[in-house]
Amino acid sequence: CTVAHWVHRFSSGRESLDDDPRNGRPLSVITQQNIEAVKDLVNDDPHISIDYIADMLDISHGNVDTILKQHLELKKVSSKWIPHKLTSAQQQRRVDICIENLQKIESGAWKLCDIVTGDESWFYHRKIKSKQE
């Protein structure tokens, strides 16, 4: 709007700087309600796809992606949504698991080849069956 437009509106008795209420869809569907809905869906199923969330909530793929990455600070690793930043408790849990794995290797219960790594910050501790088993 131009200055002349606002001068006319305030001269006509308008007192508020807020926008007039509008009908229809909001300009942005990235609302707190949608952010919470996406968060709930991801918490229920960390393997959920962006397309499925978009279909469930009737919002665009791009907006779901924005909510996941910018508002919830999640990223997808090995087809699972995980937080970008870990809490202190999550960091401690990872340290505890590493200590447990190291003890298994040192005691001979595991071999180093039983630990499978993926991307530079993930490893999976599971017993891989040999062909003889």
The number of distinct structural domains comes to 2
Q: Pairing-aware structural class of the strands and helices?
A: alpha+beta
Assembly state: single chain
CATH class of the largest domain: Mainly Alpha
Order of helices and strands: HHHHEEHEE
CATH fold descriptor of the largest domain? Arc Repressor Mutant, subunit A
Strand order of the largest sheet: 1-2
Q: Span between N and C termini?
A: 75 Å
The biggest beta sheet, please? 2 strands, antiparallel
Strand content: 5-15%
What level of helicity do the residues show? 40-55%
CATH architecture of the largest domain: Orthogonal Bundle
Alpha plus pi helix count: 5
* Morphology call: elongated
pLDDT under 50 segments (min length 5)? none
Radius of gyration: 25 Å
Descriptive report:
- The protein folds into 2 domains: 27-84, Arc Repressor Mutant, subunit A, CATH 1.10.10; 88-125, no CATH class.
- 46% of the residues lie in helices and 12% in strands.
- The protein contains 5 helices and 4 strands; from the N terminus they run H-H-H-H-E-E-H-E-E.
- It has helices at 3-11, 32-44, 50-57, 61-71, 88-107; strands spanning 74-77, 80-83, 115-118, 122-125.
- It has a two-stranded antiparallel sheet with strand order 1-2. A two-stranded antiparallel ribbon has the order 3-4.
- Helix 2 (32-44) crosses helix 4.
- The model has no long low-confidence stretch (mean pLDDT 80).
